[in-house]
UniProtKB/TrEMBL annotation, chain A:
Domain ABC transporter residues, every copy: 6-240
Localisation per UniProt entry: Cell membrane
Name of this chain's protein: Energy-coupling factor transporter ATPase
PANTHER family: ENERGY-COUPLING FACTOR TRANSPORTER ATP-BINDING PROTEIN ECFA1, HEAVY METAL TRANSPORTER
CC annotations in GO: ATP-binding cassette (ABC) transporter complex
Matching InterPro entries: AAA+_ATPase, ABC_transporter-like_ATP-bd, ABC_transporter-like_CS, ABC_transpr_CbiO/EcfA_su, ECF_ABC_transporter_ATP-bd, EcfA_1, P-loop_NTPase
Signal peptide range: none
Gene3D superfamilies named in the record: P-loop containing nucleotide triphosphate hydrolases
PROSITE patterns in the cross-refs: ABC_TRANSPORTER_1, ABC_TRANSPORTER_2
GO molecular function: ATP binding; ATP hydrolysis activity; ATPase-coupled transmembrane transporter activity
Pfam family, one: ABC_tran
UniProt keyword terms in alphabetical order: ATP-binding, Cell membrane, Membrane, Nucleotide-binding, Translocase, Transport
Family the UniProt entry places it in: Belongs to the ABC transporter superfamily.
UniProtKB/TrEMBL annotation, chain B:
CDD domains with a match to the protein in the record: EcfT
Main location: membrane
PANTHER family (alphabetical): PROTEIN ABCI12, CHLOROPLASTIC
Pfam family membership, one: CbiQ
Name of the featured protein: Energy-coupling factor transporter transmembrane protein EcfT
Lineage: Bacteria, Bacillati, Bacillota, Bacilli, Lactobacillales
Cellular-component GO terms for this entry: plasma membrane
Record membrane topology: Multi-pass membrane protein
Family recorded in the similarity comment: Belongs to the energy-coupling factor EcfT family.
Source domain of life: Bacteria
HAMAP family per UniProt: EcfT
One GO molecular-function entry: transmembrane transporter activity
Length: 279, 265
């Protein structure tokens, strides 16, 4: 029980007074140091869930517990200190006039003293490999670089939980790879609890657990290898299928027997090489 | 369009670049007041030397200052012409109806011209050597005394710095929307005045809507990072007053004294 860092109980939420419930009697748990990927089609409630956990939206009923504290109007700022969020649009979440000031913004809000602030900004920017851009203005940065700055802003705050709300969805493949690699390294080093809301299957594949959300309901919660096996169901929900599963499907069409369990790309290559040399 | 707003600040490490933005801001305003003390050729000549000295210290090519004057050149020439044609006194060289060309007219025309150019040079020097965000920061710390009369200093400076930060972003977006509408057949640069005004609507409304979306995203991101008002925050950027700032203030006080002496001379 004490191992749960986030615990959502019987949550009910809808945006307007009339209209349908988006979440009805919703229950959700995340363990400390777990990396959870939440996937689902547009409008399935992924982003809403993230905003509820951060206290940016208030549920109509039910409780949200973050790190043993039940969220209420009084302690929402206290809880927010434990959560770092990176949003989708790199342009619109850049508050500062330049890179260093943007990273410092969260620290300024927490009234961190001058010297410590400069030190933490520097280490955070070095961590994401953006220190040499410290004095640059956002116009001169690419989308991937801006998201790295946003991540640095989160690291500088030293939160327990990092929520990535489709943080890579507006980036080009290269920037996306960079950011995902960076998140992975951060997870290994600092052992944050990570909730990544994503459409990107590579990002989901790195997680400990994948939660498939459909219209405010969890329809599956399992390790990625298990979730990715249901290729067909996933594509019915409007989700992408990992490349190795696509290869498998194509092979099945050509009447070639393939292994049942999920293989990563590397294992898939090994398996193909093996089966060819065995012939 | 981009060049005008973005190409202004020139990074450098000269004496003027390293001055505290607060002293730069105050001194360039002070300079504008001092220049109105000038009333004869010796005072103008002296001011010319002062400005030339400042420009030399900043190590910036004169061409950039010319760019600062350029947009105002017609206003300057118009004012100079008014001065020349309508001033009376001294020897009359030529007269026709209400217009006259007199000695005083020509002299005051030249004075007005120099007054304009010197003020523009000095303010260009300020914007060329100071990044906009430092000007915003300087304004905040200079406005601090107004907190006593409940003027929302922090909020105003936050607004200013966010506005400055989003200017290039919104210019980019305006250009994008313009091209997108052009590719769908909107004609922005021909037709009667009325037609042109109508053509601006498909540019303005999407820009307006997207500004709202941006504002909402930004507010959420700020809230998620713990922003709850200007109270109880520390600052990342703190201006420091150096010896060179004191030196420049003293220098400008000396300039004022010399000006007052030269006025009566």
């Amino acid at each position: 029980m004490s191992n749960d860092i986030i615990n959502v109980n019987n949550l009910n939420f809808k945006y307007s007074q009339q209209g349908d419930w988006l979440f009805k009697d919703f229950n959700f748990k995340i363990e400390r140091h777990e990396w959870v990927a939440v996937i689902g089609h547009n409008g399935s409630g992924k982003s809403t869930l993230a905003r509820l956990i951060d206290g940016l939206l208030q549920p109509q009923s039910g409780s949200i517990m973050v790190d043993q504290q039940t969220m209420s109007a009084e302690n929402v700022w206290e809880i927010r200190k434990k959560i770092g969020m990176v949003f989708q649009n790199p342009e619109n979440q850049f508050v500062g006039a330049n890179v260093a000031e943007d990273v410092a913004f969260g620290l300024e809000n927490q009234a961190v003293p001058y010297k410590l602030m400069h030190q933490r900004v520097k280490t955070a920017l070095q961590r994401v490999n953006m220190w040499r851009f410290a004095e640059q203005e956002p116009v001169n940065l690419s989308g991937g670089q801006k998201q790295r700055v946003a991540l640095a802003g989160v690291i500088a705050l030293q939160p327990e939980i990092i929520i990535l709300d489709e943080a890579t969805s507006m980036l080009d493949p290269e920037g996306r790879r960079d950011v995902i690699q960076l998140i992975h390294d951060l997870k290994v080093q600092h052992n944050f609890t990570i909730i990544s809301i994503t459409h990107d299957i590579d990002e989901a594949a790195l997680a400990d657990r994948v939660i498939v959300l459909d219209d405010g309901k969890i329809i599956e919660s399992a390790p990625p290898a298990q979730v990715f096996l249901h290729g067909k169901e996933l594509s019915h929900l409007g989700l992408a299928v990992p490349f190795s599963e696509k290869v498998k499907a194509a092979l099945v069409k050509r009447r070639i027997t393939v292994p049942v369990q999920y293989y990563t790309e590397q294992r898939m290559v090994d398996w193909i090489c093996q089966s060819i040399s065995n012939k | 369009m981009n060049k005008v707003l973005l190409g202004r600040y020139l990074p450098g490490s000269s004496f003027i670049h390293r001055l505290d933005p607060r002293s730069k801001l105050v001194l360039s305003f002070y300079f504008i007041i001092v220049i109105f003390l000038a009333n004869n050729w010796s005072t103008y000549l002296f001011m010319l030397f002062v400005v030339a000295g400042c420009i030399l210290l900043a190590q910036i090519k004169l061409g950039f200052f010319w760019k600062g004057v350029q947009p105002l050149i017609w206003l300057i020439l118009f004012t100079v012409l008014l001065q020349i044609l309508f001033s009376r006194g001294g020897t009359i060289f030529w007269q026709w109806g209400p217009f006259s060309l007199t000695q005083t007219g020509i002299v005051s025309g030249i004075y007005v011209f120099f007054r304009f150019v010197l003020i523009i040079f000095m303010s260009t020097l300020l914007t060329l050597t100071t990044p906009p965000l430092e000007i915003a920061g300087a304004l905040e710390s200079l406005l601090k005394p107004l907190k006593k009369i409940h003027f929302p200093v922090y909020e105003v400076s936050l607004m200013l710095s966010i506005a400055l930060r989003f200017v290039p972003t919104l210019i980019d977006e305006a250009a994008k929307i313009m091209n997108a509408q052009r590719s769908r057949g909107v004609n922005f640069d021909s037709g009667s005045l009325r037609q042109r005004l109508n053509a601006v609507v498909p540019l303005l409304i999407p820009l307006f809507v997207s500004a709202f979306n941006r504002a909402e995203d930004l507010a959420t991101a700020m809230e998620a990072r713990g922003y709850h008002g200007g109270e109880g925050r520390t600052k990342y950027r703190i201006n420091q007053w150096h010896l060179r700032d004191t030196v420049s203030v003293v220098f400008f006080l000396l300039v004022t004294i010399v000006m007052i002496l030269l006025r009566t001379w």
